[in-house]
Amino acid sequence: MSRRLADVEVGAELPEATSRVTRADLVRYAGASGDFNVIHWNERVAREVGLPDVIAHGMLTAGIAVRAVTRWAGDPGAVVDYQVRFSRPVVVPDDGSGAELTVRGRVAAVGEDGRVRVDLTVTSNGDKVLSLARAVVALS
Q1: What is the dihedral of CA 92, 93, 96, 100, to 10 degrees?
Q2: CA-to-CA distance for 51 and 39, rounded, in angstroms?
Q3: Where would one find coiled-coil regions in this protein (predicted)?
Q4: 32-88: per-residue pLDDT in tens?
Q5: Are strands 115-124 and 79-86 parallel, antiparallel or unpaired?
Q6: In angstroms, rounded to a whole number, what is the distance separating the alpha carbons of residues 100 and 19?
Q7: Looking at the domain assignment, is residue 67 inside a domain?
């Protein structure tokens, strides 16, 4: 069921969303996206370029984050704009459980045109991994 504009207020919190990213997820994402950059699967190369370990694809991280908004809105097609800046990589250890991403959202603005801006806070292992993350959704 799609969320209605009349039910949305500035300051409202979205339900917190937690997701796990494993090395297997990185393999699947690489296959789907065609992004086979070595830093997403080879620990040795990742460390040689100064990373602590293999990292998640940035667009995978961004996709997981916006899913919290689409679930809240009730319609993936309601997202009309989405922006993020990558502030830290999501390190994905080879331990079977991977990395945890936590997404929190808050309604920052409600326009008369039915557009709602949602600001997101996305963390992994206590570190903010996306900054200036925000989505605009069109609600009826």
Answers
A1: -50
A2: 8
A3: none
A4: 999 999 999 999 999 999 999 999 999 999 999 999 999 999 999 999 999 999 999
A5: unpaired
A6: 6
A7: yes
Q: Which domain holds residue 89?
A: 5-20+57-138
Tell me the CA distances in angstroms from 134 to 15, 57, 124, one per residue in order: 15, 19, 17
Instruction: For residue 92, tell me if it sits in a domain.
Output: yes
Q: What is the mean pLDDT of the chain?
A: 96
pLDDT for residue 90 is more than 90: yes
Number of helices and strands in the chain (H, E): 3, 5
Residue 139, CA distances (Å) to 40, 72, 76, 103, 117 in order: 36, 11, 11, 21, 11
Q: How far is residue 115's CA from residue 135's CA, in Å, rounded to a whole number? A: 10
Domain-located, residue 41: no
Domain CATH code at residue 78: 3.10.129.10
Pairing mode of beta strands 115-124, 17-21: unpaired
Q: Is residue 81 part of a domain?
A: yes
Compare 63 and 6 and report the one with higher pLDDT.
63
Number of domains in the chain: 1
- Return the structure tokens found at 23: 């090395």
